[in-house]
Design a protein that fits this description.
mainly alpha, 119 residues, globular
């Protein structure tokens, strides 16, 4: 009987963990839209029509904070910093060295330092 209870507890924990994981993916799909809406309300309009995302310090096409599709793709690959709600490969808070790598790409293209990302 005790073994059956333990098995039930394990199954229950697995169910809860999978539900939490699914919920995180769904909520993150709206992160970019929520982010853009908040910025627009604050009077800041980010058009996403240039090569570089000035807000986040990465090339626009790979910005997981502006693009819900990029965010979802990163999550599927396991490339997600849940603490800072962005791709781990773009989390300058956890990996400050990444900011320098992205900045080097900007400098190679434009011959000058990139704008300082927000936050």
């Amino acid at each position: 009987m005790t073994m059956l209870r333990k098995l039930g507890a394990v199954v229950g924990l697995l169910f809860v963990a999978s539900a939490i994981g699914c919920g995180a993916a769904v909520s993150t799909a709206t992160v970019a839209a929520d982010h853009a809406e908040a910025k627009a309300k604050a009077g800041h309009v980010h058009t996403h029509d240039s090569w570089w995302c000035d807000e986040h310090g990465v090339p626009e096409e790979m910005c997981g904070q502006c693009s819900a599709k990029v965010a979802a793709d990163c999550q599927k690959k396991g490339d997600w910093c849940a603490q800072h709600d962005r791709p781990d490969s773009q989390c300058f808070l956890c990996h400050p060295e990444l900011e320098a790598r992205f900045a080097a790409r900007y400098e190679a293209k434009y011959g000058k330092k990139p704008p300082q990302p927000e936050g």
